[in-house]
């Protein structure tokens, strides 16, 4: 019984670590700005502003683990 509890706890911790890694480190280049962190301003064509999708970070979280 005690060995089963230890095995279940170890499996739960391993699943938590894998899930945390997938959701926090699964980043891809922003498709709107292309990773440059800025987009052209809509009012002034020669000006740039921070990308609205990635917030100026240059990367976004991938959807369902897709790295495309």
- What composes the largest sheet? 2 strands, antiparallel
DSSP helix count? Answer: 1
What order do the helices and strands follow? HEEEE
- Give the strand order, joined by hyphens, for the main sheet: 1-4
Runs in which pLDDT lies below 50 for 5 or more consecutive residues are: none
* Helical percentage: 25-40%
Helix/strand/pairing category: alpha+beta
> Which percent range describes the beta-strand content?
15-25%
Could you characterize what this model shows?
The chain contains 1 helix and 4 strands; from the N terminus they run αββββ. A two-stranded antiparallel sheet has the order 1-4. It has a two-stranded antiparallel ribbon with strand order 2-3. Strand 2 (38-40) and strand 3 form a beta hairpin. It is an alpha+beta fold and 68 residues long. It is rod-shaped, with a radius of gyration of 20 Å.
Features:
68 residues, alpha+beta, two-stranded antiparallel ribbon, 4 strands, 35% helix, 18% strand, rod-shaped
Write the layout of secondary structure elements.
Blueprint: H1 2-25, E1 27-29, E2 38-40, E3 48-50, E4 59-61
Antiparallel strand pairs: 1-4, 2-3
Write a brief structural summary.
The chain has about 70 residues and is an alpha+beta fold.
